[in-house]
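FIELD: query
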Amino acid sequence: MPNLVLCDFDRQKREVFRDYLEAHPHVERIDAADETAALRLVDSCSALAVVPFWSAAPNPRQLEAVREFCRLQVPVVPVLAPDLPAAVKSVGIEAGAIDCVPVGAMRGRLLQLIELFTARFVPRPSDTRPADSPIVDLESRTESRTDDGYLLQSPAMQQVSDRLLKIAGLNSTILLTGATGVGKSSLARWIHDHSSRRNAPFREVACGSIPYNLVESELFGHVRGSFTGSDHDHEGKFSVVRDGTLLLDEIDCLPLEVQAKLLRVVEQRCFEKIGSHKTERFHARLIAATNRPLDQLIAKGEFRPDLYYRLGVISFRIPTLQERADAIIPLAMAFALRFAKEQGQTIGSLSPAVISALQHYAWPGNIRELRNTMEYAVAFASGNQIRWSDLPDEIRYPERFQLTGGTAVAPLAATPPAEPGNQLAGARRVAEREMLLATLQATNNNRTKAAAALGVSRMTLYKRMERLNISHPKVES
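FIELD: result
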């Protein structure tokens, strides 16, 4: 069982905190009266450290304890009183705490963090951990699994995985829907690998990247002389896949006339090459994928309804990465390990600050964006650990970027790109923004109560919300 070390200098408050967590059955709570005892405890067991700051004038040893936990790469969560000075509140984020939880948000956010910690708990070896041992060890956590294996490892994907296992061995056509980058191609490969066709070819066609006039030939093939420039026979994907699995990605991009031929393949399992009168049998399994709502394309006359209904008999919507947040860190670790091996580097861990940044980012590009992020981070990592400074600017400073036309590009403010000297200011901005959002949530977006809890005037609160690009519905008492 994992341990939760409570590092609190006030005995009475420590008892209150223990009572508060008494109902949580998944952690062994251990009290530490000072930072020395706490550090000794976490060095001998796998633990999550919680450091409460109850008063506006915290003990300096508490601040040093947070910094030391982070230096030793122990997951630490400061619990912050609302009247703490801003400089104190930013210490945790600057040092690398996995999160900073306001007192008013303990019942929600802190318990969620404990759940995440216990879910990812891996027992520590019996020997004493060296001071520079990583919090997240890539080799031990990823084992022999590929990153694709983690696509199904989250509660949001549990229902999808159960259904996929039931139909993986069938021959039925499958339709995969979901936003760009959620892993539709990888899931199609997973279905193939878990079917009786696993030893046969798997072919993927990106329909949106094929020139309009070549789509039919690329799919069905053509015979010599069937059109200008066809000086030899060409085998299309429907032929070369034989009895394997064919994935038609971006199926919404197919021309209507090709959709008609595809409908015949789905219904009659046969097709003809361009310029040929010979009917060929289609023996493979067909999987279609799209990131656009086909029903809306039908309304516009851009997609055949009969093809949609035939494809949609067995369909799966793949959740976004934000909907399956539990998969973010396992996937990040798997990607980091893969790219480190490809680039001849030795990457053994993710720092707590990196874990926090990955968990708090919105991931509009989903798994594809996470994969690109980890490739970037591995390339810039200078040691055996990926640190916060190795991440791309849009991950470190998400408030500076906005999503335009599907691509995160434009800074929201005229702020220079992140440089080493700017990291402190950026960390403080992140910490202040997190505190404001948490206080607003705890007060049900009542700005009067939020301002009082933060110890500032309403006008100051409004100005800071505007500066930090925070917009919340106004709920006044």
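FIELD: remark
The chain has three domains: 3-131, 173-313, 409-477.
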